[in-house]
Amino acid sequence: MTGLALDLTGAEVLFPDGLRRERLSFADGVITSDPTGYEVDLGGFLVLPGIIDLHGDGFERHLAPRRGAMKEMTEGVVAAEAELAANGITTGVMAQFYSWEGGLRGPEFAARVFAAIRDVRGEVVTDLIPQLRFEINLLDHYAGLPKQIAEWDVPYVVFNDHLPHDRLAAGKKPPRLTGQALKAGRNPERHWAFLRELHDRSPEVPAALDRLVPQLAAAGLRMGSHDDHTEIDRATWRSRGVAISEFPETAEAAEAARDAADSVILGAPNVVRGGSHKGNASAVELITMGLGDALASDYHYPSPRRAALMLVRSGICDLATAWNLLSQGPARILGLSDRGRIAPGLRADLVILDAASQRVAATISAGRLSYLHGDIASRLIGQRRPFSGSTSPRQGA
Fold first, then answer.
1. Which of 103, 131, 249, 362 fits a disulfide with 352 by CB distance 3.0 to 4.6 angstroms?
2. Taking the model in full, what pTM does it have?
3. Which tens digits make up the pLDDT trace of 202-217?
């Protein structure tokens, strides 16, 4: 499908150098310099680059709203894609655990999720990118992981370590052990023993990672580390070739990433909340210090838009700088040179906000409508008229 062919006029458009009231045209899925011949007056709206969400796991409730309740996984992915679009997200990284936690975060469930994403990607409008969140203590899974990743068509891997090492080292049971065990389908005592086994094998993990990461790099995968805490953490991951620091927990780790030109992804909910729900570094403070390259939805899809607008309202930065954390910055991290800015020749990935409420009125991905809400509908699809600067309207609207 080629999508719409439109000339948007009357709106304030966010170009790389800031807002300007200027015609924005797109056809065949890309932004054009010349008008297409179909004018739409968007006075009272803002047109911005579509949001590229680098890490979101808010789709879990769509794929399995209750344990065992969702049998048709593709329907859950379609529902999640609708939520992405409703929040101005035109490219969404769907972050799926591959974890000792089991259940919705276990290897078997991950296989189903990635298969469903692969099956529906060609049917939905939002560009969906799967991300594998791999728990590094699953040593018995290393050998087969590269083949699985290739079969799932996963281009992006993040390494996690969520084992409660301190408690396990002290021989203490982690909080909520019984509930976690039941979700994983394990006897609580067996689950505790399993966690202790994983913890006891921790000395084997660095060498295993040193073998695994080069294999994934050779396959062209992007790789990140999750929750870096110290400068040494970041340096260790960098030495392996893992150049993305996802949600660093401290300014020390974020500074280490910045100083080495690694990419830093921060959580948008952290900005919206005014701080980390786990007591980690404030994303607002890190952004103020110049230590963030991108904001991601994490667990809440409305947060990226809200976070960028909050940064503007609080005077921390202007709109172009704040919105770059949602568009141009993420595009660079993912190596997507065809999006992230409003410029001729790039994908027509756009989010249209009501200027008064600053809520999402429409989302357009590669020139195709993925979300439309309220009065803007009659403007976009009901009142098109030939643009005064063109005498030969193009087809495809």
1. 362
2. 0.93
3. 999 999 999 999 999 9
